[in-house]
Amino acid sequence: MELSCSSALSWFLVVLLFSTVDAHSWIEQMKVIAANGTFVGSPGYARGNVLRTAPGFSDPTMTYLIPPDDRANQSLILPTDRICKSTQRTYNQTEGSPRLQASAGDAIALRYQENGHVTLPWNQPGKPKNRGTIYVYGTTEPRENDTLLEIHKVWNTAGTGGDGRGVLLSKQNFDDGRCYQINNGNISEYRQSAFPHVADTLMGADLWCQQDLALPSDAPSGKLYTLYWVWDWPTAPGVDPSLPKGKQELYTTCMDVDVVEGGSSVSHSRVQEGYVEDQSLDQAAIPSEFAEVMASGPKIKTEGSSAPSSSTLDATSTPTPPITPTPTVPAQVLVLTTLITIHTTIEPSAQPSGGWLVEST
Ligand SMILES: *[C@@H]1O[C@H](CO)[C@@H](O)[C@H](O)[C@H]1NC(C)=O
Ligand SMILES: *[C@@H]1O[C@H](CO)[C@@H](O)[C@H](O)[C@H]1NC(C)=O
Ligand SMILES: *[C@@H]1O[C@H](CO)[C@@H](O)[C@H](O)[C@H]1NC(C)=O
Ligand SMILES: *[C@@H]1O[C@H](CO)[C@@H](O)[C@H](O)[C@H]1NC(C)=O
Ligand SMILES: *[C@@H]1O[C@H](CO)[C@@H](O)[C@H](O)[C@H]1NC(C)=O
C-alpha cells in the first residue's frame, strides 16, 4: 500500500517537475547534520524564499544570474554586480520559510536540485566537467550592497581576503556524485538505480544535490550568520559555435542562519561518532563530503591555510560527467587548488581578470 502510494506520487511529481529541466539552481533547503551524518531539526531556507510547491511558482523567482541575460557582453562582470538577488539583499524570511537554527561549528547541508546540469550535460556544450564549482562564503557582517567581485575568489579560508569581513567555508563540485532528476538520459537512469530513494512532496522522485560544510566554530551565538552560495558555471571559448568566446555564468543564493547555543552541535562529539552507513539518501549527509567536513574540523576565521573542504576537480570542458561518486583528490591537488585561489585573490578585484578563466580552461 505504502509502496504504491509513493510510486503514484513519484509519477505525479515526475510529470509536474519534468518541465524544469532547462532551468537553473538555487539552495532550496538547509539542514543541520548530526555527528552520525543524519539530518536533524527543522529545515531552514534562504532569504526571500518561495517554495517550489507554492502556487504559480516558476524558477526565476529564486534564481539569480550574473551577468544578467540582457548584458551585451556575457563575459563581463561589473564591479556593481551585487552578489545577492534583489529579494535577498537584506534579512528577509518569508512565511513558512524560516531561518535554519544551528550552533557554531555545526555541520550543515545546503540542498539544491541539479535541474539537468548533471544528468543532461550534452544540453550545454563547453561547460566544466564537474558541472561548475560551488563556493560558500560566510560573514557576520553582510551588507546590502555586497558585490560579487569583492567576495567571490577574494574572501579566503583564512579570512584575510579582500576587506576581511568574511571567509571561504567550502568549495566543491556542483555534481555531488549522486544527485539526479528523473529523465531518460543514461546518467539519470544509472543514478536512479544506484541511489534509490523514496519520493516526497518537495523533491519529488528527484534526488537533490548537497553541499555539506561546517559553520565556523566562532560564529557568535544569538546572532545571525550569513552564507553566500556561488555556483560558478562558465562556458569555455571555442566549444559552442554560438558562443565562440565562451561566457561567464554564475548563480547565487543568499541565506542566514540563526546561531543558537549548544543544540545539536556535532563539534562536541565529532571525534567519537562516525557516519552511520546505509542511511536514507533524503535524510543524511553525503558520506564523502561529511568525512571531509569532519576531517577538516571546525573552521575558525583566524585559522591558517587549511584547504577548502572539497574535492574539487579541475574543470575541463567535456560533456561527460563522472559516473561514480567524486573521488577524493590527493593532497597535492588540494594544495594546488589553494594556490590557484590565492593567485586569483591577489589580483585587483575591480575587474574580471585572467583568473576568472582558470577553472574553465
Ligand atoms: C543519528 O543521531 C540523531 C540525533 O542524535 C538521531 O536522531 C538519529 O536517529 C541517528 N541516526 C542513526 C542512523 O542512527
Ligand atoms: C522578500 O522576499 C519576497 C519573496 O521573494 C519578496 O517578494 C520581497 O520583495 C522581499 N523583500 C525584500 C525587502 O527584499
Ligand atoms: C567582454 O568582457 C571581457 C571581460 O571584461 C573582455 O575581456 C572582453 O574584451 C569584452 N568583450 C567585448 C566585445 O567588449
Ligand atoms: C556599501 O555600503 C557601505 C556602507 O553600508 C559603504 O561604506 C560602501 O562604500 C558601499 N559600497 C558600495 C560599492 O557602494
Ligand atoms: C552515458 O553515455 C555517454 C555517451 O555515450 C558515456 O560516455 C557515459 O559513460 C555514459 N554514462 C553512464 C553513467 O552510463
From TrEMBL:
Keywords: Signal. Residues 303-315 have a biased composition (Polar residues). The keyword Signal applies. Residues 21-286 form the DUF7492 domain. It holds the Pfam family DUF7492. It comes from the Eukaryota. Residues 299-328 are annotated as: Disordered. It comes from Aspergillus ellipticus CBS 707.79. Transmembrane segments: none annotated. The keyword Signal applies. This is DUF7492 domain-containing protein.
